[in-house]
Write a structure and sequence with these properties.
- The complex is a heterodimer.
- In chain A, helix 4 packs antiparallel against helix 5 and helix 10 packs antiparallel against helix 12.
- In chain A, a hairpin with an 8-residue loop joins strand 5 and strand 6.
- The longest helix of chain A has 17 residues.
- Chain A is elongated.
- By secondary structure, chain A is α/β, with parallel strands linked by helices.
- Chain B has one domain: Vaccinia Virus protein VP39 (Rossmann fold), CATH 3.40.50.150.
- In chain B, 39% of the residues lie in helices and 14% in strands.
- In chain B, helix 5 links the parallel strand 2 and strand 3.
- Chain B is of the alpha/beta class.
- In chain B, helix 1 crosses helix 2 and helix 2 packs antiparallel against helix 9.
- In chain B, strands 1, 2, 3, 4, 5, 6, 7 and 8 form an 8-stranded mixed beta sheet that branches.
- Chain B has 10 helices and 8 strands.
- The chains are: A alpha/beta, B alpha/beta.
- The interface between A and B is medium-sized, with 26 and 18 residues.
Chain lengths: 292, 275
């Protein structure tokens, strides 16, 4: 388990790359010292690299992969791509003033993912929020200057472009009915938001499943979480759980298994995507008419 | 009749699940510790018997499936597919491969595992030409009577039925051959049957060890590798297209050069030419 503190700010891409390099080194039975020698560095530098605490030089990653016998093919390409992504500043860096570093890591992972599964209890998932709804959510948490609020909303809107770009990830969201009924920003904002959800559910890469009140307790009583998957087979899934002042990133297989199990249960218990759209339309019909 | 191998209900991560074990063998990530342990134990048994393991078999099966669907949608001109025992979706699913060649192709997946159902529904979204229905392959009448299937599949037009790495999950007591015959009887002339099946040919001991390992792990379904003659029996009601019933890698390899395969799966495609 890695707790990413607001001050530390290593990107999860670096942590992922580091953990893959450690796995490869251990498989080959190569010591940290020998690996360090190959890249003209100390044993402790290898340690720091494998923990994702320091950035990678591409040349070092090239040399380490060669030493570990990853001479070609998809795995080498994928890991070198990861090294480049881990070093490149993302578009979100320009929002550094309103974006805590633990969340920057998440935005970076979201942009690199091939599948994003998310479970939300309180709010509509961030990637599916309308601008008005997002503004109302931001206002709940911050009474800052309007300029800062604008930037937070702009960031959320820019995050959503990930779903429309070529090679976009799939988003598979499970949303509790409570989040669909809570009139954040008022009934009109909620109406616009529900209409937006119905439209989003028609996109080929977006799935929405609703957990209706009718189900008593369910598997993830613990609250909201997301599971990010990457196209490369060698990369583990990452579970993301947001807390008030930091976030948890879990990529150990035992941890991921428990959240994956909870997510599978939620999806089995939830209404099907088709039923969920019917439910959203019903909720829209039930909203008080505009102007009241 | 008591059902020794009932359909999985809900999400049971403690029982090794054959769909998730296969996902693991294909390098997928939708599997749990019990599935991985059982699949690894199987691979270990096979390595000890000096035969290729489940990963090779899974990869070769996938390669054959892609070539088979391309043949069916291309040369054979088929526009309707029923993939029975579809398993967890992965890359290059039947509807994707078929619709690349024939955009109007329609595909119905069939599986009885609720986790397979939710994954497939999420992937298929509101694709009007593909769907998944929940049904048990041991009850073909229920599959063909399903209203969602009938919405997409016109049973008066030729259909390709795919039984890919599924018949070997049904023991003889549950009469898989009778099931195939009943299925085929309901399809019009010009329909195709495609089968891949684990074989014990040339490796009876390793095959027995494989069956024993599945039983030891108490997987959701058993595995029954069969002889070539028994597998050919499933295809008795159709005329096999070239090259007949062969190892999966030898079925119209692309590029067309001989490949040495794992030798675990026999594969064949046949056309129904008479009622």
């Amino acid at each position: 388990m890695s707790t990413v503190e607001p001050s530390a700010g290593p990107t999860v891409l670096r942590i992922l790359l580091g953990s893959q390099l450690r796995r490869l080194r251990e498989q080959r039975g190569i010591s940290r010292e020998a690996a360090g020698y190959a890249i003209r560095a100390s044993e402790s530098k290898i340690s720091r690299l494998e923990l994702g605490r320091v950035g990678f030089k591409e040349r070092d990653v090239v040399d380490l992969l060669t030493l570990y016998g990853v001479d070609g093919g998809e795995e080498r390409m994928a890991l070198l791509g990861l090294a480049r992504d881990a070093n490149a500043p993302g578009w979100w860096h320009k929002y550094g003033d309103v974006l805590p570093s633990w969340f920057q890591s998440y935005v970076g992972l979201e942009a690199a993912a091939s599948l994003i599964r998310t479970y939300e209890v309180q709010f509509i998932p961030g990637l599916l929020q309308t601008e008005e709804y997002a503004r109302a959510v931001v206002l709940l948490g911050h009474d800052g200057r309007s300029e800062e609020i604008d930037r937070r909303v702009a960031l959320r809107m820019e995050r959503q472009t990930v779903l429309a770009r070529p090679g976009a990830p799939r988003l598979w969201a499970v949303v509790d009915e409570a989040a669909l009924r809570r009139p954040i920003g008022g009934p009109e904002v909620l109406r616009g938001q529900l209409e937006h959800l119905v439209a989003a559910a028609k996109l080929p890469n977006v799935t929405v499943q609703v957990i209706p009140f009718g189900f008593g307790g369910h598997a993830a009583a613990g609250g909201a979480f997301s599971i990010l998957r990457f196209a490369d087979q060698a990369l583990p899934d990452v579970v993301y759980i947001e807390q008030l002042t930091s976030a948890l990133y879990l990529d150990k297989r035992e941890d991921v298994d428990r959240y994956l199990e909870a997510m599978e249960r939620l999806c089995v218990e939830a209404e099907t995507p088709t039923e969920s759209v019917l439910r959203l339309n019903q909720l829209l019909t039930d909203l008080p008419p505009a102007g009241h | 009749m008591t059902d020794e191998h009932p359909a999985p209900s809900g999400v049971d991560v403690n029982t090794p699940n054959v769909a998730r074990m296969w996902d693991y063998q294909l390098g997928g990530k939708d599997n749990f510790a019990a599935d991985r342990a059982a699949a690894e134990a199987v691979n270990e048994v096979l390595r000890k018997a000096n035969v290729p393991d489940g990963r090779d078999a899974a990869r070769e099966n996938r390669g054959f499936l892609h070539r088979a669907v391309r043949y069916l949608a291309g040369e054979a001109g088929i526009r309707q597919f029923i993939d029975i025992g579809a398993g967890l979706p992965t890359q290059g699913n039947v509807h994707e491969v078929a619709q690349e060649l024939a955009p109007e192709a329609r595909v119905v997946y069939v599986d009885y595992d609720p986790v397979v159902l939710v994954h497939s529904r999420a992937l298929l979204g509101n694709d009007p030409q593909a769907t998944i229905i929940q049904a048990d392959m041991r009850r073909p009448e229920e599959i063909l009577a399903n209203p969602e299937l009938r919405n997409l599949i016109d049973l008066s037009e030729p259909v390709a039925v795919l039984l890919i790495a599924t018949l070997h999950l049904i023991p003889d007591e549950e009469s898989p051959a009778g099931m195939v015959d009943r299925l085929l009887a309901a399809l019009p002339v010009g329909s195709y049957l495609t089968v891949t099946h684990a074989t014990r040919e040339g490796k009876a001991e390793a095959a027995a060890a494989l069956t024993a390992e599945f039983a030891r792990s108490r997987t959701t379904a058993p595995i029954v590798p069969r002889s070539r003659a028994d597998i050919a029996r499933f295809l008795a009601g159709v005329d096999l297209v070239e090259p007949g019933l062969v190892y999966a890698v030898d079925w119209r390899p692309d590029p067309p050069q001989p490949v040495v395969g794992a030798g675990w799966l026999l594969a064949g495609i046949g056309r129904k030419s008479k009622d």
